[in-house]
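User: structure tokens for this one?
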Amino acid sequence: MQPQSIQMLTICGISELSDQRERSVTHVLSILDPDHPDPEAFGSYDPHHRTILRFHDIIDPIPGMILPEPEHVEAVLRFGDEVAEKRGEGAEGHLLVHCHMGVSRSTAAMLTLMAQTHPDESEEKLFERLNEIRPQAWPNSLMIEFADALLSRNGRLMDALRRHYGRQIQRIPRYEQLMRDLGREREVEMAA
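Assistant:
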């Protein structure tokens, strides 16, 4: 994905998809639970390039659930490459990344795409931009760990993620208990 091809970045949850249909979305990355039906909202969108990934928003193995794997993050990066290939077509793009709530998987994917697009950008700047796009961002740490390795960030994305979690807990104190309730206490502890 190159900055010249995508002029607008949006992250949202499924319930917000209908609000985006009038915004000339050109590229969509959908991250859904494996058994969730395809959102109907896309039927009213203008023609767009869309990739669908299916795995659960977890960071540790849970029986019967699909853990994010390196292959999922590789698919996010392939999507970024596909977006970059379209840049010569002349149209300004609008990239929409969504998951169920627009908080964890989608924000991890968007951060991955931004890090891919801007390999020389500092990790702190990437997280600042992510917060501008989606203030409630709590990226899935497992996805960020894979992105860090695949993009040769040498642990810097993970270090910035820890600081991001700390800032988010200060800004949105309810996140601490919410993440613990969701089995994501390891991420809360990362912030300490």
